[in-house]
Amino acid sequence: MSDNATLREPPARKSPWALAFRVATWILAAGCFYLVYTRMEVAAARDSQTVWQYLVAFFAGADWAFWLAHMIPYSVFFFLVDSHATWRVIRWFNAPDLKLGNVLPIRASAYILSLVNEQVGKGAMSLYLLKTYEVPGWRALSSMIFLGLIEIYQLLLFSAIGVAANFDLVRDASTVLPLDVILPSIMIVAALYLPVHIAYFRTGSGGLRETNILTAFRQARPIHYLLVVLFKAPNLIGAVIVYTFALELFQVDVSLGQMLAFLPVIFLAAALPLPFHAGALLLWTVLFPDYPEVAAFSFVMHTFFVLFNASIGVLFLPRANKELFG
């Protein structure tokens, strides 16, 4: 045996905690799908149908051409708004000379990578900043973490507005879970935490303030938080409108008020680390108990959205490869 072979390190083993977490997420996802299926089974039985017949009838009644006329423009709109917000944050904290035109192909190509893993998708931007502007990976990651926190708070903010304006709808939807207690409680805790978070990173030293991947929080001023919410707000407002009209095309009776109150919460549930966004699928059936088939509707909406965004990435891929690899 050669010396190189004897010195070669054994492959790293995955942590048993990581394996246990993965198994737990799949078990939870299976449980969510089972609950969704049983709800649809009960609804189908009322019409003397199987679940398959029930879903076929649900989707057959939709105006698919009109649905595409909503989804395609919104997907393009989302890409432009998302790229603009990302560009602004990177200019503030990483590369002041960066142009929006340089961000578009990288952000678009990240949608392709995100089909496999969201974190891999974010790595494309980090690689571009490292190669073009010599920005260390941890600084780029810091900006992405900052964006992620603002996305969560944006969802909470819009949901708070919707819940406050349509609290009676929230109370009516609290048949399975006490949403009229859970949602306001989460929003109050989040509202109390944010000023503490900003004050902590803006004053003093030591602790988490010195963590490299949290550098963006040390640099960010309160106005930065507000501006990112405003930059990204058109996407969420657009989603509320598009989902409302799309549900009507599928003969589901909803209002803009319901969507404003519920859709941001559903998007938060979609961010949970469960396969196939199982938490969001279950939440749809909880929030709309009279229409359990909306879980299948949301799966179709999400699948189309990520695939169409990936197709945008394919269009930009030649330029992205040139930006990344020369």
Q: Can you offer a commentary on this structure?
A:
The protein is mostly helical. The chain has one domain (18-325). It contains 14 helices and no strands. The protein has helices spanning 3-7, 16-46, 51-60, 64-93, 100-114, 118-133, 137-165, 167-172, 179-202, 215-219, 222-249, 256-270, 278-287, 294-325. Helix 5 (100-114) packs antiparallel against helix 6 (118-133) and helix 11 (222-249) packs across helix 12 (256-270). The two termini are 41 Å apart. The relative contact order is 0.14. The model is unreliable at 1-9 (pLDDT under 50).
Largest sheet: none
Classify the secondary structure makeup into a structural class.
Answer: mainly alpha
Total of domains: 1
Order of helices and strands: HHHHHHHHHHHHHH
Helicity range: over 70%
Number of DSSP-assigned strands = 0
Low-confidence regions:
1-9
Which SSEs are present, and which pair or pack?
Layout: H1 3-7, H2 16-46, H3 51-60, H4 64-93, H5 100-114, H6 118-133, H7 137-165, H8 167-172, H9 179-202, H10 215-219, H11 222-249, H12 256-270, H13 278-287, H14 294-325
Features of the shown structure:
single chain, 326 residues, mainly alpha, 79% helix, globular
